[in-house]
Amino acid sequence: MTGSTAAPPPRRWDIFCRVIDNFGDIGVCWRLATQLAAQATVRLIADDLSALAWMAPQGAPGVEVHAWPGPGDAADVVIEAFGCDPPDAYVRSMQERMGGPPLWINLEYLSAEAYVERSHALPSPRADGLRKWFYFPGFTPRTGGLLREPGLAERRARFDRDAWLAAQGVQRQPHERVATLFCYENADVPALLDSLATAPTLLLLTPGPAQRLAAHPPAGVRTASLPWLSQAEFDHLLWASDLNAVRGEDSLVRALWAGSPFLWQAYPQADGAHAAKLSALLARMA
Description:
By secondary structure, the protein is of the alpha/beta class. It has eleven helices and twelve strands.
């Protein structure tokens, strides 16, 4: 008798993404796509692909990029990122797919709140016979975990920050600490700058609000404005810093992997829901 064999892994994955008003959605989806591509063919379908020009200028092996609405044939696994609703024609192709409907995953936002453990991996049946499964990233074994590519810690350990800074045209002065500022609009940035000014600080500014809000730093803070960086180079930016001020979801996870002290600005929400996310993360880390 021959032993049983494991089912082959899915051959094709489709990831659907709608870009709302920042780069976190497409950033998370691109990182996910590149990691899945190590085992399968991945198609990323998004309604705004412009950020990939600097986020992933070289593309990635095994990842196909399509403008919305994308191809019409359903893959083996369909990931709907952040409740973006795949096109109606694509959903019909899921119903008609030879061999049965694909696995449909609703990838949710990252949170340390308690409901994540209760909601992760729950099914959501639909009236048309299809079924979604909720996938919640998180910080415990009862969640979907966090994205981290193989070998990241080893690359972090070999990183030469002074060489990387020099490649950006920046040189750290003796006894100068390094900090990164990546933020949304934030009225507390001046207070942060005053706090950094208590010791010689080189502050690396990402494009957008950070460069505008820190345009006139106090004495003791020297700033350097950087261009938009690829995801790999953004990791290097965080590795080069002694303190990282980050925002949103993707950069929070990358700050955790960087292993340096960090400040986190959650995405501001009108109903104040971001305050609960912050409190939950602080409680989890404590």
